[in-house]
Amino acid sequence: MKKAILTSFILLSLIGNAKAQGEDNNKYFDGLYFGVSIGSQNIFGGAHIDDLDLLAQKNTFVLEVYPGFRKQLFNDRMMIGFELQFGFAAGDMTTYNPRYQWEVRYENSFQHGYGLSAGVVLGTKKNTLVYTYGRATNRSFDITFTEDTGFTHHQKDGQYFLRYGLGIERVIREKLNVSLMVGGIYVDFGDLVTSQKVNDAIDVNLGLVYQF
After folding, report:
1. Nearest-5° angle of CA 94, CA 97, CA 100?
2. Is 201 a domain residue?
């Protein structure tokens, strides 16, 4: 009887230890993933008029999807990753050019880019990720100039810039995580003369991530 109890105790201990090791070995931020986010992002566009880049800017709603791949390293406590982004924005804007008395309309509904991320995995269950990210992003605008006479002409504009910031991601159920990202933008117009500076308004995005 004592041998049976002892054997049962040893078996239960081994099963419990194996289960605990299995839980410790869970990698919640490793491999292929697919994310979707909604939030407010800093949208800006430029229209070239003679030697001036006439800018318009606003913070607006953006829906973004981002497939990617990431890897946990160093006892699964560090993460590095790469991703693609495809965004759908309410990016239409209107401004006025006092020099020629033109109304200028900027139309944008899509953006795309790629990015890198790196972070640390926290918690005894390794189920919380805190990370920093950088995303090279492109937005294209269809621009329409409308003169006071009603005559219109058109132009295209592309904006290339860097989005950067901090994020936190936490497991809410198996293979499904929730994320929050807060950041800003960096843009360099080079030698172009612009009508205003781009305000570094804050981007805020809330997302869900499915980890395959």
Report:
1. 140
2. yes
Distance CA 197, CA 27 (A): 43
Single pTM value for the model:
0.79
> Distance (Å, rounded) from C-alpha 151 to C-alpha 102?
10
- Output the domain CATH number for residue 156: 2.40.160.20
pLDDT in tens, 142-183: 888 888 777 888 888 888 899 999 999 999 998 999 999 999
Six-digit token string for 43: 């949208």
For residue 86, is it within any domain? yes
Which domain covers residue 140, as residue numbers? 28-211
Could you give the CA distance from residue 29 to residue 210 in angstroms, rounded to a whole number?
A: 10
Tally of structural domains, the chain: 1
